[in-house]
Amino acid sequence: MSDKESLFSKKNKAILLNPLSKDNPVTVQILGICSALAVTAQLKPAIVMAISVTVVLAFSSVIISLLRNTIPNRIRIIVQLVVIATLVIIVDQLLKAYSYNISKQLSVFVGLIITNCILMGRLEAFALGNKPWQSFLDGVGNGAGYGMILIIIAFFRELFGSGSLFGLRIIPESWYIANGGFYSNNGMMILPPMALIIVGVIIWVQRSKNKDLIEN
Amino acid sequence: MDKNSNKYIFIYASVMVILVAAVLSIANISLKSAQQKNISIEKRQNILASVNIESTTENADELFNKKVLKSYIVNSKGEIKKGDAFNIDMKKEKQEKDLEKRSLPVYEFSIDGDTKYVFPMYGAGLWGPIWGYISLDSDLNTIYGATFDHASETPGLGAEIATKRFQKQFQGKRIFDDQENFVSITVAKANETAPKQYSVDAISGGTLTSKGLQKMLLNDLGAYRAFFKQKKSE
Which of A175, A187, A214, B217 could potentially form a cystine with A183 if both were Cys, beta carbons 3.0 to 4.6 Å apart? Predict the structure, then answer.
């Protein structure tokens, strides 16, 4: 790769956009499933988590990529973890100081971000062997790919589990059995197993559309 | 230097750890005052919420200062202690084993001509601490309002104690029975028979958080028994 390569060359675009479809971290690489189950009962936390992971992933990728030629091979995982954890804690401290409400909602997620396998997975697989700009794009792309899946899952779970989207009522109150109607929320949707089933359905749909992904 | 030599690894790891520690300490120290301010605003908002006053982060300080009549600290014998009630950290007070040594804050509010008393509480839920404020009418028996919060209870289950829907149940409940015995509030499951005026419905699926809340109410409201008695005889 020459230094004269444009910032958004074809190759770089592929790094950014592939994680959204045929190289999606959740549905193809099967990374970050645990947090995809934990935060998708409603849309709002899912979006907060998506943004946080994207930011942390993009910047930790850049840092690891800058350091890649100095990191001793034998302690590389530790170095990656230290970089991720430091970034997350600094973001958390900043939010606590300047955006307290968001930080309160996020406090549960801080641990989930640090242990998110997408972070370690991408640092190990990409940032350790690529230049900072490409690593940044890879981080943003994978964060967005992860966020996209989170939002799709959260959409279905909140709509059918709570009858609302972003906390706003979508299914009219009068439809509910309690109010003399015929409808009832699906309690299963609130629970994590349903998120796993939705991930499965997304993988199914994606593979039936993109035959290249099907293993022999 | 050989990147895989022990010497290089030791130096690399040491430098990294020292750098990271420095960065984190600087972030922590420089942001502390802004964080403290947010925490105290939230505390004021919570206390206001317990007397059913809605506030925003912007007007919480102003509303609090306008509405609060006075605040003071008592001990478990009901005697007034010196100090600023607002700066009492309930977490630290609860660690004090000797009940008589604990500082118990009281806030008095004047709402529509009636005096309301606000009492803080702090206890344990399932995963982490839970805390809250309860306000009583001037009879020091009927609950006027309640607010609870938690650090890490399960979303959708135990975390429901922080919702308005759960907290609204407390309004109008009583903590003393007709014989003036302290009964606190029972957080009752469907199959438990507890008199309606002294109990609220527990959260389905949040049994351990509900139990923790009930224990917190019993212990922390109970600590004020002497104070209640004294105020009532005045």
Answer: A175
